[in-house]
């Protein structure tokens, strides 16, 4: 599975959501899920 910019954005958003209380929930990694499926 190629590591794309969208993957890095999803990871950053997820970490920000987990570490930062009150942040919006992370979006679903559509591109990553599609590539791995």
List keywords for this structure.
37 residues, mainly alpha, 59% helix, elongated
Q: Output the radius of gyration.
A: 11 Å
E-strand count: 0
SS field, number of helical segments: 2
Q: Please state roughly what percent of the residues sit in beta strands, choosing from under 5%, 5-15%, 15-25%, 25-35%, 35-45% or over 45%.
A: under 5%
Identify low-pLDDT runs. none
For the biggest sheet, the summary is: none
Secondary-structure element sequence? HH
Shape: elongated
- The helix content is 55-70%
Oligomer: single chain
- Kindly report the average pLDDT value: 69
Distance between the termini: 10 Å
The computed structural class is mainly alpha
Describe the structure.
- The chain is mostly helical and 37 residues long.
- 59% of the residues lie in helices and 0% in strands.
- It has 2 helices and no strands.
- It has helices at residues 5-19, 30-36.
Write a concise synopsis of the structure shown:
This protein is mostly helical and 37 residues long. Helix content is 59%, strand content 0%.
């Amino acid at each position: 599975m190629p590591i794309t910019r969208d993957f890095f954005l999803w990871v950053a958003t997820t970490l920000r959501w987990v570490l930062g209380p009150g942040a919006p929930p992370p979006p679903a990694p559509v591109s990553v899920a599609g590539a791995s499926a």
